[in-house]
Amino acid sequence: MAQRPSPSPAWLATLKATQLKALATAIGLPSSGTKPVLTARLLASLPISKLYRRNGASTSSDQAPHILSIDMGIRNLAYCQLVLPASWPASKQATRPALPMVEAWNRTAIAPRPVSVSSEALCGTQAKEPFDPATYAPYAHSLLSSLILSAAPHPATTILIERQRFRSMGSSSVQEWTLRVNMFEAMLHAVLHTLRSHGIWAGDVYAVEPGRVQAFWLGDKDGRRVEKGPRKAKQGKEEKIRLVGRWVEEGGVVALKGLAEETGQSFVSKGRGGVGKKDDLADCLVQGMAWVRWEENRRRIMSDGMGFLEELE
């Protein structure tokens, strides 16, 4: 793939801070900082594709990117597998461009719930679910083996893992459940690094900040994030569920294949049935599609320059 020319520092230097923040948000970069910081960040990131790379190096565009997007959890880990069409990205003149295909879209429990026993059998002690690296390491290996190694000859080329927080809603305490998810997140990265180092899998892994995904889909164009707090967090989840519901119902954003169609229908079903924990399923899809749109926007900024910014505004 021919290397595109770097964006002009002179062009970016003429922009206002709000315009630089809008560009940063459009390609998934942090939108905070001064004008020089934002400009340097854009100059460093715009020439680099985060889809057509293998093991940190640029590669040709003849192989369609396969994205595995993971929304972290122990009881409710959600994932989706997106395959981009060979004609991606579509030209502006295309009347019916091929859409990213969702080939898998599911939710799984990493660790089984502890089996309840009678108080007599416990002899007055409370059974506790095991939480240690030796217990969780096989879970990480099993999950990635089923999602990557079993997907040959077309395993994921780009893996997105939701970045976890250590605290929720600004709380001063760190919950044990948060530590479990953080530990499992680190294990996934470690397993993937090992697979790459030994040549078993060739691809790239990225930790994705949920705030940037939400700012891209639900925030302002100038880079401001949505408000924080328990109530706002709940509203954000509901808005993402509605967003995915519109994608499924109206079409034109993603195509669904096989069992992913059933998952998609649960977002437009009027009844109480369907797939549970829709917020986790919505999170993994909007994360994957944000990555696709960020790459599309990066390419357009490189080719259109100010023209892209004028359309954005």
Structure description:
The chain has 313 residues and is of the alpha/beta class. Helix content is 44%, strand content 12%. The chain has eleven helices and eight strands. The strands form two sheets. A six-stranded mixed β-sheet has the order 7-6-3-4-5-8. Helix 2 runs parallel beside helix 3, helix 5 crosses helix 6 and helix 10 crosses helix 11. It starts with 8 loop residues before the first helix and ends with a helix. The mean pLDDT is 83.
Structure keywords:
313 residues; alpha/beta; six-stranded mixed beta sheet; two-stranded antiparallel sheet; 11 helices; 44% helix; 12% strand
Task: Describe how the helices and strands are arranged.
Layout: H1 9-13, H2 17-26, H3 35-45, E1 53-54, E2 57-58, E3 66-71, E4 77-83, E5 101-108, H4 119-122, H5 133-147, E6 158-162, H6 176-197, E7 204-208, H7 210-218, H8 230-250, E8 255-256, H9 259-265, H10 278-304, H11 306-312
Parallel strand pairs: 3-6, 5-8, 6-7
Antiparallel strand pairs: 1-2, 3-4, 4-5
Helix pairs in contact: 2-3, 5-6, 7-10, 8-10, 10-11
